[in-house]
Amino acid sequence: MDIASRVYAHKWKIDPIVRSLIDTDFYKLLMCQSIFRNSPDANVTFSLINRTRSIRLAELVDEGELREQLDHIRGLSLTRGESTYLRGNTFYGKRQMFRPDFMEWFEALRLPPYHLEKRDGQYELTFEGKWPEVMLWEIPALAVLMELRSRAVMKGMGKFELQVLYARAMTKLWSKVERLRQIDGLKLADFGTRRRHSFLWQDWCVQAMMEGLGPKFTGTSNCLIAMRRDIEAIGTNAHELPMVQAALADTDADLLQAPYRVLADWHEEHEGNLRIILPDTYGTEGFLRRAPDWLAGWTGIRIDSGDPARGAETAIAWWKARGEDPTRKLVIFSDGLDVEKMEELQAQFSGRVRVSFGWGTLMTNDFRGLVPGDALAPFSLVCKAVSVNGRPTVKLSDNPNKAMGPADEVARYKRVFGVGDQAAMDVVV
Amino acid sequence: MDIASRVYAHKWKIDPIVRSLIDTDFYKLLMCQSIFRNSPDANVTFSLINRTRSIRLAELVDEGELREQLDHIRGLSLTRGESTYLRGNTFYGKRQMFRPDFMEWFEALRLPPYHLEKRDGQYELTFEGKWPEVMLWEIPALAVLMELRSRAVMKGMGKFELQVLYARAMTKLWSKVERLRQIDGLKLADFGTRRRHSFLWQDWCVQAMMEGLGPKFTGTSNCLIAMRRDIEAIGTNAHELPMVQAALADTDADLLQAPYRVLADWHEEHEGNLRIILPDTYGTEGFLRRAPDWLAGWTGIRIDSGDPARGAETAIAWWKARGEDPTRKLVIFSDGLDVEKMEELQAQFSGRVRVSFGWGTLMTNDFRGLVPGDALAPFSLVCKAVSVNGRPTVKLSDNPNKAMGPADEVARYKRVFGVGDQAAMDVVV
């Protein structure tokens, strides 16, 4: 290492976890642009939720360090190179995916303030403000907390003990790569930014997958890594769009239509592989049953909760009922995947639909079993839009363990969307 | 990396495996000094012997590359820093272990020519010349062939595949470290230079043991690594001393005394922990039975062939018979050790003698099971003094699978030394 690089590295008073505004999921940027056009003034609150209560984050992670990391993120702005990339790169086959007015706004953006308190061994971390601004906190906030937790656990480890820890993690990931490359026709992307062990580890995993899986690895949801490694940035849309629009609905009839209004906007903006339905926000079966016909013409569906095989079968039946050919449709599985589940799903659905996987936490954070007390095992941390213009948001999902919102509102949504009993499934990550 | 380092690294036309004359076992230097004084003009031939015939080295390793590596070694001479270290460092508690006349000779030394031919898929590599010069070829020749074989196997591997290979090897070594550190009173040194996977890997292993075992790790036989890592250089003497002296004996009576003459010279030169008997060259039991009483006063014994527990029991009984207290004696086990065997031996002999281990190939080259076809598994390569002044050398050992020499001479030695039936044991490494 030359002296200048070394001095430069020492100048940082902290070792920043998030060093770029595009170290985030690509779909956040697509959604941000959509929100920037359609709902720029909605006042939204995002909140961190640790579903794994047994991990007492506020006892593990120092508040001062957390604040330093969050403050560092507030100081970030889009660099010239990042802006050039977003403006000039071809995403999903399209040039100028990001419109000039959006890019100008994004170039000037700094993330808004955060609010941090400790309660009952957990951090209450919230972000309130204009939707297109606060929504960009989700991924960096999660990444910071995940990585600070990793750092806290690794603090006392020796140099070689640490090297061996990573050696073990590499060995583990590579064994998965060796199994995955046996799968004929596999298409898999990295969806693991939000709950990664660390940035450097995610970057290593992506490069290992590029070498180990070749064209079976289709890209990463992480925009910064996609840029640096010159691979595809992957992602479309997420639950926050219907959740916020639903909360804004004034009547039950309006509420029932909210998810489709969101997709009608999306339909106008995007085509091809960006037209992916995320049907589970208020129950997949009712959503598809009531869906307008133009939605059946979309390219595919993303299965993000519930039993994934059942979700895919439901979609196939629905396409057939609407006169569509399922073999031309894309099914993206993205919920809590690991190798065995992907092998099963590929075997069950290959040839019947175009299968694709978004592999998340168990790609970028499978440190299970690597340290005493399993202190580096991933856990279920999310950061969600919890209210908009003073009204609470609700998510039902196809798994009641993933539902959120005040009890009375959840009951109302279940009534409006006709959601009955659901099978509860463990949320691993 | 700065530009100058990079350009410097590129200037090498090859990537040299052995870059220093002291990248060798410390005992070679101690023996070399002894030979330099006692037998400087004996004409000795060393020869490479691959006991694992199934590994066809001449097909795996390119002859041009092998010659380049050997030629590079012929160009090496002691650097100023190395000389300062050898002259000034305290070895085994003694300053000026190496005498000025020896150091002057060593500073001027270049290794003599080698002779290389291919036969039957193997390399015939021999070194002929004055004993103190040719004997220094042993370790670098072995290290070069072992590492060229590793390189040949790894040639087609991708960058991340390679990283994972080393991750797996690290994981494996560290699991051993975690078991070893459970052993109360463990004393263990690295004896793995000659059959290491590579120089960098040995250096990594040594550092990992320093951190992982703390004071239970007592040092390394590798003089260069001992210097660089500031730990003890470990080693005393080896079979080549009695083998060459035995071959020089003119009568059977003279032959029978040869091993004791060697140790009488050693007794004069060294004291304390350097007075370690290596009894198995022509059979441990007879050697001890006939040994002069002053040998029973030596500090310890090294068990390098045969059943190690039996060897240690034989030594204990012998010490008792000679009125010595075994609990004050050192027993160094150094033959084909791995963790389980060390656990067993420590349990059996702790408290009865001072136990110590010289851990070799399965520390610095346990790549078993890490690549398809086990193509990186260590194998049994040695480089031995095969003749002196035109007479063949003989080794019997406590394991007939380790014996060497022409059949008629082996028969004569067995008769002279009274060696009967021996239990054959597999030679793993």
From TrEMBL, chains A, B:
GO biological process, one term: NAD+ biosynthetic process via the salvage pathway
UniProt xrefs under Pfam families: NAPRTase, NAPRTase_N
Post-translational modification: Transiently phosphorylated on a His residue during the reaction cycle. Phosphorylation strongly increases the affinity for substrates and increases the rate of nicotinate D-ribonucleotide production. Dephosphorylation regenerates the low-affinity form of the enzyme, leading to product release.
EC number: 6.3.4.21
Any one GO molecular function term: nicotinate phosphoribosyltransferase activity
Keywords, ordered alphabetically: Glycosyltransferase, Ligase, Phosphoprotein, Pyridine nucleotide biosynthesis, Transferase
Entry superkingdom: Bacteria
Enzyme class, first EC level, given as a word: ligase
Nicotinate/nicotinamide phosphoribosyltransferase domain location: 187-420
Pathway: Cofactor biosynthesis; NAD(+) biosynthesis; nicotinate D-ribonucleotide from nicotinate: step 1/1
Modified residues (Phosphohistidine): 239
Residues of the Nicotinate phosphoribosyltransferase N-terminal domain: 22-145
GO cellular component terms, semicolon-separated: cytosol
Transmembrane residue ranges: none
Recorded catalytic activity of this chain's protein: 5-phospho-alpha-D-ribose 1-diphosphate + nicotinate + ATP + H2O = nicotinate beta-D-ribonucleotide + ADP + phosphate + diphosphate
UniProt keyword Cell division, yes or no: no
Family to which the UniProt record says this protein belongs: Belongs to the NAPRTase family.
Cited function: Catalyzes the synthesis of beta-nicotinate D-ribonucleotide from nicotinate and 5-phospho-D-ribose 1-phosphate at the expense of ATP.
Annotated protein name in UniProt: Nicotinate phosphoribosyltransferase
Species assigned in the record: Frigidibacter mobilis
